[in-house]
Specification:
Blueprint lengths: L1 H11 L3 H15 L5 H9 L8 E3 L2 E3 L3 E8 L5 H5 L5 E7 L12 E4 L4 E4 L8 H9 L10 E5 L10 H12 L5 E5 L14 H15 L8 E5 L5 H13 L4 E4 L18 E4 L3 H14 L5 E4 L5 H10 L3 E4 L1 H6 L3 H15 L5 H4 L6
Parallel strand pairs: 3-4, 3-13, 4-7, 7-8, 8-9, 9-10, 10-12, 12-13
Antiparallel strand pairs: 1-2, 5-6, 6-11
Helix pairs in contact: 5-6, 6-7, 7-8, 8-9, 9-10, 10-12
Amino acid sequence: MYKFIRPLIFKASSDPETIHRVTMRLLNMASSVPGFLWAERRIFGFADNKLRQNLFGLRFNNPVGLAGGFDKHAEAIEALAALGFGFLEIGTVTRHAQPGQARPRIFRLEVDEALINRMGFNNLGADVMAERLHGISLHQSIAPIGINLGKSKITELKDAAEDYLYSFSKLYNFGDYFVVNVSSPNTPGLRQLQDKSFLVDILSGLNNYRLKQSIIKPILVKTVADLSLEAIDELLEVCKNQNVDGVIISNTLLSRDGLKNHTNEIGGLSGKPIRQKSTDYIKHIHRQASNLPIIGVGGIFSAQDAYEKIKAGASLIQIYTGLIYEGPGLVKKINQSLVKLLERDGFKNISEAVGAENK
């Protein structure tokens, strides 16, 4: 059904961000309508014990998550969870509120089934996010909630550790896990924070804080599949030394390799063109650090795409661009078909399939 109405949705506005904003507001309003969330769960929900996992102290009923950047302001957590996601990631949020780049800043590449975005971490800031989350019941009966943290544009690189720590401490009580995003291409200098010295400073500050809390929350690092393999290996060494609980790969790419319809628009590329590169890097990371859980993201439009990342080494996967092109039924389709793929290949559960290509 969605494939028939998608052309109308895409034509409704030349700016994809407008459609996204309207959608988020409608989901927010619909959440308060009696029976809406129940009906949504009935339509889009799917459960099977083969898909359940326990990772970094959290229970995931299925491996399909919503990637950071979709619900930047924690506007529609309950409605999005009711689409059947196994977990959600909100943000990116920064210490200071910031408007992001000038619009338009999202561009569809329909022939390639891809997006280019240069949002620039537009968000209301950690203080407002904390106030908003205070009124929402975040618990695992909904789904684990991750909070994606970024550096404020006005913050100098030398002060990045303090910037991340402020947001982390402000939001600590509201997230089930936290993501240190040092890989977006749309904040000047941000990717330099993947360098060893910067990353150690950031992670050591967060570690020191969480060790003083009654509950130690997981910390993950989000990286990108256009670093050299040597740089990835160095990042993994830092993650090991700093007790990082997992990695997410890949953020959007600056590369335009594989595009059928070339464009001069600046920003990060997501969608089908980055699928294979993301999967290749997942395989490399799993071979180098098989005990480090990986969340795979990039170009997932089907259960087969998700399964490839799982067999490459991803314990969980996330979708964003695939949701835009395939519609809200994608989560259920992936989960239903994953069960069939696991049974076909003789796996008792999804954990057995993780990294199967590397064994």
